[in-house]
């Protein structure tokens, strides 16, 4: 009898606890955050609780995609296609406003001056990353450099940055050449056997996966492919659950995907742990001399300086971070480049001419890459028009004052890179044209009217650590491809850039590829 009484008491307490959590999560906290932001002068589309503005975003996207299917033209004016809800809200609320993903307030920013003022007083280590995304992407990045905060970020960044120094990257160029040469041979035999078209995005994503596997962990592609495929499967799974980001208890709404992402995460962790253990136990055996993991393990050696070492757990998370952050973004930069060059034959020829002048018949070496100036302009212009990382996210860990506004601690920020890269106020009336020559005079900002208006690699202390590696890979792969083939648009190509975490051609990228005579 007493047991039954106790049991009922516990059940009632649990029930009330859960009820209170639901009431607070779905109503009390969001409403108080909403009022706080409103009294501090922030405006934006009206949210409904607990979905915030998600329903409206879905409706606007649905409407836009049904309209855009009818158009088959390649337009680079993509902001209103990839972020139609932001384009629409900008018209009524300007370039800075609050919108809600579920019960999470997000400060939308597409104004570089506001961004500058906001970030002026905040050090790299004081920025947070939105907890909603952290939870969602935990299986992918764990506590790797992309997500970590505070003193742990300082320590990790301190250990990782030197690994990406040009002197270390130099040794990786030849493995990039090897992998690209294998892909070129495959393309040549495909063409010989009658294939006219190649889906360059699929091919280059595989190539970039192989390159990052080799340059990060020194793997043969056989074992790299398993990690790569699991990461890719996880990305798709996470995207499906993403639709409910910010909605309390949303992970219970798609339990299948949540469990699937967890399972994949565990498998990837265990694969990577065994790679790290093998590397620790057999230093230097069977791997290229200097790869990223090798460099990090050097920092991690027994006499490593106090406070600079990375634990095995952290190394696993860094490996995942490099793998995910490193292959997909670079592959997309290269794929979009091939599309734009297929559309602009005069630039394709100019780059070929530059390759002949700078490299000639010599073997491709790291030192020669700096001479490929025009290729650098083309890369920047592609990153402007089709930024693989379409947004940068932060979370305030303290109240931040910008002019007369105070951004409360805990507010998430969504910096719309696509909007700024396509803003005629910043770039002029030819903003949506492919004009690499913008970067001729001003190779850092392409003549953008504001220094914070061109952010393909983010900003401040948290700027992308892998940008030198990307630039090298981009030049190696593009040089080899343009020296062998010419590229034209396939009639089968349908221009539909869309967001799957990164900005990708959602219906593939078939191009007509012909060997050069
Ligand atoms: C075209 C290629 C790439 C693009 C567009 C890109 C873009 C970005 C962006 C936008 C950020 C966020 C910066 C911020 O929050 O301000 C970032 C951070 C980062 N990226 Fe990249 N990235 C690329 C390639 C790479 C590569 C090749 C690697 C590594 C192998 C890499 C590793 C990282 C890491 C570790 C961070 C976190 C840095 C930190 O928070 O301290 N990225 N990247």
From TrEMBL:
The keyword Protease does not apply. It is found in: Membrane. Keywords: Heme, Iron, Membrane, Metal-binding, Monooxygenase, Oxidoreductase, Transmembrane, Transmembrane helix. Heme binds at residue 464. GO terms for molecular function: heme binding; iron ion binding; monooxygenase activity; oxidoreductase activity, acting on paired donors, with incorporation or reduction of molecular oxygen. It is a single-pass membrane protein. One of its GO terms (cellular component) is membrane. Gene3D superfamilies: Cytochrome P450. The keyword Transport does not apply. Its cofactor is heme. InterPro entries: Cyt_P450, Cyt_P450_CS, Cyt_P450_E_grp-I, Cyt_P450_sf, Cytochrome_P450_Monooxygen. SUPFAM superfamilies: Cytochrome P450. Pfam families: p450. Belongs to the cytochrome P450 family. This is Cytochrome P450. It comes from Erythroxylum novogranatense.
């Amino acid at each position: 009898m007493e047991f039954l009484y106790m049991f009922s008491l516990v059940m009632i307490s649990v029930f009330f606890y859960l009820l209170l959590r639901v009431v607070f999560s779905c109503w009390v906290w969001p409403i108080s955050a909403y009022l706080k932001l409103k009294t501090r002068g922030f405006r934006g589309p009206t949210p409904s609780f607990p979905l915030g503005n998600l329903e409206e975003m879905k409706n606007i996207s649905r409407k836009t995609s049904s309209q855009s299917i009818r158009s088959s033209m390649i337009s680079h004016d993509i902001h209103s296609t990839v972020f139609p809800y932001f384009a629409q809200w900008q018209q009524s609320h300007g370039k800075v406003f609050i919108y809600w993903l579920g019960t999470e307030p997000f400060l939308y920013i597409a104004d570089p001056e506001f961004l500058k003022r906001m970030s002026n007083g905040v050090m790299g280590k004081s920025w947070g990353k939105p907890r909603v995304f952290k939870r969602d992407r935990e299986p992918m990045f764990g506590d790797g450099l992309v997500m970590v905060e505070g003193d742990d970020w300082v320590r990790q960044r301190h250990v990782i940055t030197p690994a990406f120094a040009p002197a270390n990257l130099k040794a990786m160029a030849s493995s990039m050449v090897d992998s690209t040469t294998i892909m070129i041979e495959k393309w040549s035999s495909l063409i010989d056997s009658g294939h006219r078209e190649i889906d360059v995005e699929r091919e280059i994503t595989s190539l970039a996966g192989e390159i990052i596997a080799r340059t990060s962990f020194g793997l043969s592609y056989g074992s790299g492919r398993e990690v790569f495929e699991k990461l890719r499967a996880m990305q798709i799974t996470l995207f499906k659950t993403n639709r409910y980001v910010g909605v309390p208890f949303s992970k219970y709404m798609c339990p299948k995907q949540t469990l699937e992402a967890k399972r994949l995460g565990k498998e990837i962790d265990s694969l990577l742990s065994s790679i790290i253990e093998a590397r620790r136990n057999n230093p230097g055996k069977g791997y290229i001399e200097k790869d990223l993991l090798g460099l990090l393990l050097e920092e991690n050696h027994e006499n490593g300086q106090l406070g600079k070492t990375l634990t095995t757990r952290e190394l696993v998370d860094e490996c995942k971070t490099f793998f995910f952050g490193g292959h997909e973004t670079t592959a997309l930069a290269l794929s979009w480049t091939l599309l734009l060059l297929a559309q602009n034959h005069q630039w394709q020829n100019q780059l070929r001419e530059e390759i002949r002048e700078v490299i000639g018949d010599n073997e491709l070496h790291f030192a020669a890459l700096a001479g490929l100036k025009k290729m650098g302009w083309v890369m920047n212009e592609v990153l402007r028009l089709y930024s693989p990382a379409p947004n940068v996210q932060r979370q305030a860990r303290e109240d931040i004052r910008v002019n007369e506004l105070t951004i409360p601690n805990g507010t998430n920020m969504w910096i719309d890179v696509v909007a700024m890269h396509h803003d005629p106020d910043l770039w002029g009336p030819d903003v949506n044209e492919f004009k690499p020559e913008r970067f001729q005079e001003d190779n850092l900002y392409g003549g953008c009217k504001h220094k914070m208006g061109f952010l393909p690699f983010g900003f401040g202390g948290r700027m992308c650590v892998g940008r030198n590696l990307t630039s090298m890979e981009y030049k190696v792969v593009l040089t080899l491809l343009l020296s062998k083939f010419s590229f034209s648009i396939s009639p089968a190509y349908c221009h539909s850039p869309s967001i799957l975490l990164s900005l990708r051609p959602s219906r593939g990228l078939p191009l007509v590829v012909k060997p050069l005579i």
